[in-house]
Write a sequence for this structure.
């Protein structure tokens, strides 16, 4: 994946996180329905709060898109790898236990792809 630089991955991640945030903030039903989750008041509250976190991640990655190899950049990469790994594992777990439908596996696939992309960029940076 030599075409993948930290800059490109940061911009892509920013866009992805903004799209997720907008979806979860203003139209959560589509994503939740694909996972087999009913939108209730409680689920909506959690979805909107998660949207705020995705927005913050988008801003962080956009602002550091030009960052050279540093402890800060490595921390962002490591944190994203950790979070996306856990999210992917949780997605597979929720599907396996019947708490979510197979639609959640699409999210898990995207999370695994992000893990691999950030691993590639992080390892090439060292």
């Amino acid at each position: 994946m030599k075409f993948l630089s930290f800059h490109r991955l940061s911009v892509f991640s920013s866009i992805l996180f903004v799209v997720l945030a907008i979806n979860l903030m203003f139209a959560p039903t589509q994503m939740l329905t694909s996972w087999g989750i009913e939108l209730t008041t409680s689920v909506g509250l959690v979805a909107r709060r998660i949207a705020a976190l995705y927005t913050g991640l988008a801003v962080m990655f956009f602002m550091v898109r030009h960052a050279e190899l540093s402890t800060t950049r490595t921390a962002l990469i490591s944190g994203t790898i950790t979070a996306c790994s856990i999210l992917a594992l949780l997605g597979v777990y929720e599907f396996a236990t019947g708490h979510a439908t197979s639609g959640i596996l699409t999210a898990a696939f995207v999370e695994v792809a992000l893990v691999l992309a950030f691993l590639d960029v992080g390892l090439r940076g060292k």
